[in-house]
Amino acid sequence: MLFSSLVVMPFLIRRLGTTRFGVWTVAASLVESFWMIDLGFRPATVKLTAEFRALGRMTEINRLLNTAVAYSVVAGGLVLLVVWLAAERIGVVLHVSDPAFQFLLRVVGASWAAGLVFNVFAAALEGFQRFDLSNRAQMLAPLVRGPLSVILVMYGYGLRQMGIALLLGQTCCYIATYVYCRRVFPELRLSPRNIHLGAAREIFSYASQTVSGMIGTRFQQGMLPGLISRYSSTRSVTYFSQTQRLLDYAADGISRVALVTTPKVTHLQAKGEMETIAQLTRTANRYCLALWCLPAGYLFVFGGAICRVLVNREFGDQVAVLMPLLLVGYTCWMGQFLSASVLMGMARYTAYSVGLLVEALAVTGAVALVLPRWGLPGAAVVVVGGMILTRCLWLSHLVCRELNMKQFVFLAGVFSRPLALLGVSLAGLLAARYLLPPQPRWAPLIAIGILYSGVYGLLALWFVPDPGHRSQLWSYLREKLSRRPATAAPLP
């Protein structure tokens, strides 16, 4: 993801231009919004696969996967049919006149339709706790798509060929996912005879907790670029969507922590260790927020300068306005990101899921009203407001209610130390920015980033962890550093 955002994306924007790259973004985001038809099958498949495996019910895993695949084939076919027939009409509604737009919609639609099916096998890998294999498969898509897109654009090709590169990259990912799933679960047998109504009931029973949130999230992700294209321009889509994407990539590490938090919470709840869950929720959220504040502080001050160097001055100027606004909402969200995983592990996710749907509808409607008058900064403020209300305040209220904690005390325990550290970091970074020339180049930006990371890391290790965790960390490091390679025995 970092390779894609720091190397591939800036190159494509420079060569294609912000307008044509905006066309690409609108097409991809619109089709991605159809993933709401997944209806929560993926998290349900992860949970049930892990449960059946732990209980040794391997036959039921076969029924589960076959049932999920059957639904996904139908849903994927419906997505492809709708996109294929409505492609031209969508272009007219969104005022996108580029002749490649309809082709892109259809190609990306075919890729996402297949993705609905192969997503079942990716979920099974995670249910078997083989995150190493699922990550390898996911890495194939950007590693194939990115370099191939760069090569095609260098040789004068455009959006149509980029769509084909995307399809090839995703196909490699899908094939690898299926192969890895068969390796981990050789008992897999795909057959209509293994489709089971009881498995469908179990899937829908668990998925009902997540479906409204999934619909809301996909709806918002898909509709915002379309609204910006309609009420502003496709150039503005590039500015807003790529700024958000940079922050999503920076936050990806925390989402990986969330993957393993849910099954851990389920295990602790089964043992009745609710106080341990409460302690985990407090400390893990604080540590993840401290991790997030490292890139957040640097991007807050130098995000615009980085994008001026990576892409061009026009793009960097827009990012310099949008990045600080969006960082406020993302920082509040990252401070409570793991709380959502805790609720999911406790099977108490429904209220938060409904909140995400309400947020999506409210934010989308407000952006449509704000965009014509206040432009992209107004849209960013609306998005940030939705994040703070739903993904921080409402989410923390729900998790505190389940774990019998006081919300104000809980939030203070999570946010106080990381935000104090972030404030000190911002002061130092702002002072460094005033020492740089108006248009800094790579060397000073990299030097400041390295120095900032080192100082922030040392301060965070001293200031953020609980004393017991800090002493455990130092003991672990001393043990690692004190080890010496074993001396080879002399030959006889």
SSE-based structural type: mainly alpha
User: What is the average of the pLDDT values?
Assistant: 84
Order of helices and strands: HHHHHHHHHHHHHHHHHH
- Oligomer designation: single chain
Question: What order do the helices and strands come in, and which of them pair?
Answer:
Blueprint: H1 2-16, H2 18-32, H3 41-55, H4 58-93, H5 101-127, H6 131-154, H7 159-184, H8 197-207, H9 211-231, H10 234-250, H11 252-270, H12 274-310, H13 313-334, H14 337-345, H15 350-403, H16 407-435, H17 442-463, H18 467-482
Q: What this model shows, in words?
A:
The protein has 2 domains: 208 residues, no CATH class; 268 residues, no CATH class. The protein starts with a helix and ends in a 10-residue tail after the last helix. With 492 residues, it is mainly α. The C terminus is likely disordered. The chain has 18 helices and no strands.
Structure described in brief:
Helix content is 84%, strand content 0%. The protein has helices at residues 2-16, 18-32, 41-55, 58-93, 101-127, 131-154, 159-184, 197-207, 211-231, 234-250, 252-270, 274-310, 313-334, 337-345, 350-403, 407-435, 442-463, 467-482.
